[in-house]
Design brief:
The chain has 200 residues and is an alpha/beta fold. The longest helix has 11 residues.
Length: 200
């Protein structure tokens, strides 16, 4: 890694957070001078809002009248999915037919399913499994709210501009590069911290 970074003419990172992380791992003024922040973009046409709001739910087999809270994450420790389940349990009473849709695969799948059962969430949580690239626009368009509950090391959060392109409101934790992506739109879109209470 040091050799590659040393040989590069320019080093592009997606956020100031990633620039700081790289500088901390490789503290060199020479490398710092070569780093440039180049934020990720999304295909706004591909992720555009669907004219027929009900169509994505029909295609995906999701209930038409539910209030759908979506997250697309690897099911790993730092992604904050345990906190999201607890937050959803706290606030689902205020949601009309609330459904938490968790798209992704990973090591925590069994533990997350067990936690959902222990919280009494039952059919209010659906584990979608791996989200195929071609399904992502429909998943975003089917959602009423997108949540990014990351607990650590979120370099950018590409899912945030994808969801926003589909005109889906986003709430996220103030972790890593997320405030750079979402905070400029409004500080109220960031939870005050990473706890379930703050997310709820």
């Amino acid at each position: 890694e040091r050799w590659t970074l040393g040989a590069a003419r320019l080093i592009f990172v997606a956020s100031e957070f990633m620039r700081r992380q790289l500088a901390a791992f490789h503290p060199s003024a020479h490398l710092a001078r070569k780093m440039r922040v180049l934020r990720y973009g999304v295909d706004a046409e591909r992720f555009a809002p669907c004219a027929d709001a009900a169509a994505p739910r029909r295609r995906l087999g999701l209930p038409a009248g539910a209030t759908i809270v979506l997250t697309v994450r690897r099911l790993e420790e730092r992604m904050g999915l345990e906190e999201l389940l607890r937050a959803f349990a706290m606030c689902r009473g205020g949601l009309r037919d609330g459904l938490l849709l968790i798209a992704g695969k990973g090591r925590l799948e069994r533990a997350l399913k067990d936690l959902a059962g222990a919280l009494g969430l039952g059919a209010s949580v659906r584990f979608w499994g791996y989200a195929r690239d071609e399904d992502l626009p429909d998943l975003y368009n089917a959602a009423d709210l997108f949540v990014v509950p990351t607990q650590a090391l979120e370099g950018f959060g590409l899912v945030i501009p994808e969801a926003l392109a589909a005109n889906v409101p986003v709430v996220a934790t103030p972790v890593g590069g997320i405030p750079e992506v979402l905070g400029e739109l409004g500080p109220e879109l960031l939870s005050r911290d990473c706890t379930p209470e703050a997310l709820a």
